[in-house]
Amino acid sequence: MYFDAAIVGGGASGLAAAAFLSRITHVRREKFNICVIDGNVRLGKKLSATGNGQGNVGNTCMSPKNYHGSGPQEYEGSSVKRAYDIISRRQRVHESLFCGIFSADERGRIYPAGRQASALTDCLIRELAENKVATFTGVKVTAIKKDGLFRLTLSDGKSISAKYVLLCVGGKAQKQFGTDGSSYALAEAFGHKITPLYPSLVQLKTDTTYIKTLRGIRADCKLTAVTDGKEAATARGDVIFTEYGISGNAVFSVSSAFAGKTGEVVIEFAPDIDFETLKTDVCGRKTRGYEESELLAITLNNQIGRAVIRRAASGRPEDIAAAAKHFTLNVTGTLGFDYAQVTHGGVDMRSVTDELESKLCKNLFFAGEVLDIDGDCGGYNLTWAFASARHVALAIGSREGCSSEDV
């Protein structure tokens, strides 16, 4: 079977690439034949679960600081800089990909108005069906070779030939969605290097000495990751205390700082209350005769307040306020790839052109998580998946005589 483009991977980037490429059909005299190959029985399995099932497709607040790459950043055209250049041109790419109404919450996270991620998947699958994109599900690509055309061998014994190949195979995170890291071998077969892989957007294991009484409690905090003695990342959001350490969106956002490293997190409770106000409040309670264990009552969750006071080991208001603003936990690791939302690391961007085409093999392209780019929690990774997919589609479309408006 021959196809103009074979897309390996039917996740967010693969489906988006297929949708954008299928629009070339409408501006060409002859059909542009596309196929999508995915090991899952249903396409878009991970996309349907994104944003806790609500479909967090993007964020209104974008900056290079929201993205990370594990490769060297000092070389000309670092991976994050090059990726963000693509993202910044297509921040609201979801609006060109889906028909529907989207809205942002108070933290800038963009969702479909219906808050249903599976509806996004259904929309893409419908477009592929309407444009007669061939889909092969429940089978994996076991090998890709090139002899003029690409030759793809499938796990069911069939083979496919194609002019273009797009590797949209995801990473190593969440193997329940079929992404166990084995598909990096398809890129390695063409000489591509894979940077070290680490779980990201993942729960952190910490010393639990001071938080044993906080299990199950959720708090809005400012969280700072410290590695090698320096502040590596900061986030504001939920911190959830667990039997192993901490979880929550603030934790997910700083977790990439601990890729291959240990260090500590600094929790700032009540981030909207400054130190002096907090100290004065504690002092006032002491004057009124409050018991020491109740000096942070109302201001903080009672259990958190008591944990802070125990940690301060002092009845002085300034010490208690300082403990609340600078509550440290040693980080010992993460829960690993099975619990991570994305992978930190991937195909080294130094072997990929600005069009996301392999420098080692013409007409081999990459999009999404397979590349050495990952984003913070809050829609940043889906933005990269969709933006990189459209970027590749535009590159292929231009070679096929189509303008940027066509896809």
Question: Which keywords apply here?
Answer:
407 residues, alpha+beta, FAD/NAD(P)-binding domain, 2 domains, seven-stranded mixed sheet, six-stranded antiparallel barrel, 10 helices, 26% helix
Structural write-up:
This protein has 407 residues and is an alpha+beta fold. The protein has 2 domains: 2-197 and 346-406, 3-Layer(bba) Sandwich (FAD/NAD(P)-binding domain), CATH 3.50.50; 203-334, no CATH class. It is built from 10 helices and 20 strands. It has helices at 12-22, 79-89, 93-97, 117-130, 184-188, 249-254, 275-287, 302-312, 317-325, 380-399; strands at residues 2-8, 34-38, 58-59, 67-68, 102-104, 109-112, 134-137, 141-147, 149-154, 159-167, 198-200, 204-206, 218-227, 230-241, 245-247, 263-269, 327-334, 342-344, 364-366, 374-375. The strands form 5 sheets. Strands 1, 2, 7, 8, 9, 10 and 19 form a 7-stranded mixed β-sheet that branches. A hairpin with a 1-residue loop joins strand 8 and strand 9. The longest helix has 20 residues, at 380-399. The mean pLDDT is 93.
Helix-strand layout with pairing:
Elements: E1 2-8, H1 12-22, E2 34-38, E3 58-59, E4 67-68, H2 79-89, H3 93-97, E5 102-104, E6 109-112, H4 117-130, E7 134-137, E8 141-147, E9 149-154, E10 159-167, H5 184-188, E11 198-200, E12 204-206, E13 218-227, E14 230-241, E15 245-247, H6 249-254, E16 263-269, H7 275-287, H8 302-312, H9 317-325, E17 327-334, E18 342-344, E19 364-366, E20 374-375, H10 380-399
Helix pairs in contact: 1-4, 1-10, 2-10, 7-9, 8-9
